[in-house]
Design a protein that fits this description.
By secondary structure, the protein is α+β, with helices and mostly antiparallel strands. It has five helices and three strands, in the order αβββαααα. A three-stranded antiparallel β-sheet has the order 1-2-3, with helices on one face. The protein is globular, with a radius of gyration of 14 Å.
């Protein structure tokens, strides 16, 4: 039953992404590339007073990378940059199989990607948007 739910979450975000579009109000953008398979995306965020007010992504990629980006944006929009950074760390822990049940709950729908850790060829697909976000946050914080 749980596996079916997770498959439905990934399928829904892949077929009906809410955040796959340009973002005219973006205050920052960052590109990410998975050279192994060719997944390529650009993350666009509108950050005001340390809060992610809106976000989107553009680019092409497999179902896993596209769904992961859409799920990530659902999770971080409306949160502070620090909260988004924390969620990136948790996502990394989940993918490496080192996450606790309480931490997994914080990831909400992103926990649908937990089984990716058992598919090494897909890990880079699932983590592309998260690593792109982490890099963006690092660059923003370094400029402050």
């Amino acid at each position: 039953m749980a596996d079916n739910f997770y498959n439905e979450v990934l399928l829904d975000h892949n077929l009906h992404p809410q955040h796959l579009h340009e973002l005219s109000c973006a205050t920052c953008s960052n590109a990410g590339l998975n050279p192994t398979c060719g997944d390529s995306l650009t993350l666009h965020l509108n950050i005001e007073d340390g809060v992610i007010k809106d976000g989107s992504f553009t680019g092409v990629g497999c179902a896993v990378s596209q769904a992961s980006a859409d799920i990530m944006l659902d999770l971080i929009i409306g949160r502070s940059v620090e909260e988004a950074k924390h969620l990136c760390r948790l996502f990394g822990k989940m993918i490496s199989g080192e996450i606790t049940d309480d931490e997994l709950e914080e990831l909400e729908e992103a926990s649908a990607l937990a089984n990716i850790s058992k598919m090494p060829a897909r890990v880079k697909c699932a983590t592309l948007s998260w690593k792109t976000l982490e890099q963006m946050i690092s660059e923003i914080q370094a400029a402050e």
